[in-house]
Amino acid sequence: MAESWSGAFPVSGSSGGYSDGQGPVPPQPGPADAELGGSSREVLLTSPGPPLVGLEARSISAWFGPNKVLDRVSLRMEPGTVTALIGPSGCGKSTFLRILNRMHEMVTGAELAGQVLLGHEDIYDPRLRPSEVRRRIGMVFQKPNPFPAMSVYDNVTSGLRLAGLKVGSKDAVVEVSLRRAGLWNEVSNRLKAAGGSLSGGQQQRLCIARSLAVEPDVLLMDEPCSALDPTSTRRIEETIDELQHQVTIVIVTHNMQQAQRVSRNCAFFLAGPDRPGHIVEAGPTDQLFRNPTDPRTADYVHGRFG
Predict the structure, then answer these.
(1) Does 290 reside within a domain?
(2) Fewer CB near the terminus (10 Å): N or C of the chain?
(3) Does the residue 237 lie in any domain?
């Protein structure tokens, strides 16, 4: 089962670096960033802690050059819950996910219309630095991408350096983050081992720990189990179940059983020759699978297409 943990450590922030959308780049120093809501913050992992924050997309449309890939997508992702994005390949789910932390704008020729609100703040407000937005809205990718030559310990703390955060005790951050990712018991005596020496499922949980080290408000997951075996998939799902009470989670998945197991809410995306990606139906997961309002939703979740 996923490990339960509570503790506390203080952090203060400045900027960090990100790659071209495939994941983080090795830590580099950067100038100080203004934070959303203040110049410093204290992270408390104890209950009750600060209130959880949700996301809301309002009339999001997106283009890659002249090609429109999303059409007026609106979705509320409730705080402290898991929202699953489902639909056939090519309907814009991953694009939408990347829009939620400003990774879409890193693609040459990409354009966007609409708003994304983190709490009450528009993450595309030009006064906000993308690096700070991406610290508060973390991303776990389809393929595990730890720094293979870095130790397990340094992989976790690299998240801090990427975000430009200073902490009182790195050891405490590493333990807390690995416990929250359900990995501490498996690697506590291997912290100096290379991240690339871990199994695929362990590497994915290491990436989750790295994201959690900077205390994000939201964790985005793009098919995090697609490359994993059933045992590793179960452990990731247990980790998601444990984390949903600590952070808002949005997950893209093609596994309908997984969507039912891990999410409270669900959004069904679809695209066609006459319309770019859009949401056909969204609501409580149980309703979408048991009593959908649109026959296309019923056909998809029951495997009749896609």
Answers:
(1) yes
(2) N
(3) yes
Assigned domain for 198 exists:
yes
Say whether 16 sits in a helix, a strand or coil.
coil
Instruction: Report yes or no on 14 lying in a domain.
Output: no
Rounded distance, CA 94 to CA 235, Å?
Answer: 23
- Can you give the pLDDT at residue 136? 93
| Burial of 64 per CB tally in 10 Å (0-12, 13-18, 19+) | middle
Q: Which of 97, 93, 52, 102 is nearest to 248 (CA)?
A: 52
pLDDT in tens, 15-52: 333 333 444 444 433 333 333 433 333 343 433 556 88
The candidate with the shortest Cα–Cα distance to 75, out of 282, 288, 292, 287, is: 282
Q: Report long-range pairs for 17-21 (Cβ below 8 Å, ≥24 apart).
A: 17/131, 17/162, 18/103, 18/106, 18/130, 18/131, 18/134, 18/162, 20/106, 21/98, 21/103, 21/106, 21/107
Question: Structural domain of residue 192, as residue ranges?
Answer: 79-91+126-301
pLDDT of residue 46: 39
In this prediction, residues 268-292 reach a mean pLDDT of: 95
pLDDT digits (tens, 9 = 90+) for 193-237: 999 999 999 999 999 999 999 999 999 999 999 989 999 999 999
Q: In total, how many domains does the chain have?
A: 1
Token code pair at residue 151: 């130790």
